[in-house]
């Protein structure tokens, strides 16, 4: 809206929009909720691995170097409570537990792809490729 004295915020909303006496200076509640969940260490990586399809717990742990079993279990429990991940038990033998994304979890894929592209462009890529042991 050049020329009318109004500035636009990063959200594309004019600071002096009709009906608003002043610009919003707080953080949007939706963004607060998203980063409260996905901003925790390891959570985004867990979701990113699950984007490939259902994964057994042990394979999921191997796919995320440095995560402990306890932390992975905690993150999966949180994602399950948020309705993003389903836990499925195969009674076996042997007993195996796998995890997969729900429809809501899968809906994160475009956003995560955009974040990955942004990271590659602005944060640089260390090596830039998937390590050999994780290729199928």
How does this structure look, described?
The protein has 136 residues and is an alpha+beta fold. It is 41% helix and 10% strand. The chain is built from 6 helices and 3 strands. The chain has helices spanning 29-38, 43-50, 57-63, 69-81, 103-106, 109-122, and strands at 55-56, 85-90, 96-101. It has a 3-stranded antiparallel β-sheet. A hairpin with a 5-residue loop joins strand 2 (85-90) and strand 3. The longest helix is centred in the last third of the chain and has 14 residues, at 109-122. It is globular. Residues 1-19 have low confidence and may be disordered.
Sheet with most strands: strand arrangement: 1-3-2
Portion of residues in helices?
A: 40-55%
Mean pLDDT value: 81
Radius of gyration based on Cα positions: 20 Å
Class inferred from helices and paired strands: alpha+beta
Low-confidence stretches are 1-19
Could you describe the largest sheet, including whether it forms a barrel? 3 strands, antiparallel
Any idea what the shape is?
Answer: globular
Give, in order, the helices and strands: HHEHHEEHH
Strand content: 5-15%
**What is the distance, rounded to the nearest whole angstrom, between the alpha carbons of the first and last residues?**
50 Å
Per DSSP E runs of 2 or more residues, the count of β-strands stands at: 3
Count of helical stretches: 6
